[in-house]
Each structure stands twice: as C-alpha cells, then as structure tokens.
Amino acid sequence: MKQIDVQIMQQSYVLTCPDGQEERVMEAVRRVDDAMTRVRDSGKVRSRERVAVLAALNMAFDVLDRDAQQAHMAAAQAEMQSM
Fold it and tell me: Are 3 and 16 in contact (CB under 8 A)?
C-alpha cells in the first residue's frame, strides 16, 4: 500500500492507495472535488459537511441512474434477441 497526498476543496488529505491504483484514486479524487465544488458554488450550501453529503447524494443518484439505464438497455436487448 502506498500513501498519496491529495486535495479536495483546498483541504489536504493523505490517502492509502493500493499499489498500481494511484491513477484510479486520483480520478476518484477529481470527481469528488468537482462534485463538491459544484455544490459549494451553487451558493446554497457553505458547510463543508453539508457540501460533502449533498455531493455524495448527487454522485450516488448518478450511479443508480446509470445502473437503471444499463438494466433497461439489457432488458431491451434481451427482448429483441428473443423475437
């Protein structure tokens, strides 16, 4: 395991990262930082804790939405193949 220094919304964090996964961790950091920055910049929320919770909820919704779309597409393909 390797430790890497990252910043999310100008706050420094030291993360433990599996060897060879540094780029994936950095992409995750970029996505979290972007999501939190968008929530903060909306002007409605200032507390770092609330920004983090809302960003996490937005990201979870996006994952669930993508999963639902993939399931819908898989069902449509299966239906087309059974015709």
Answer: yes
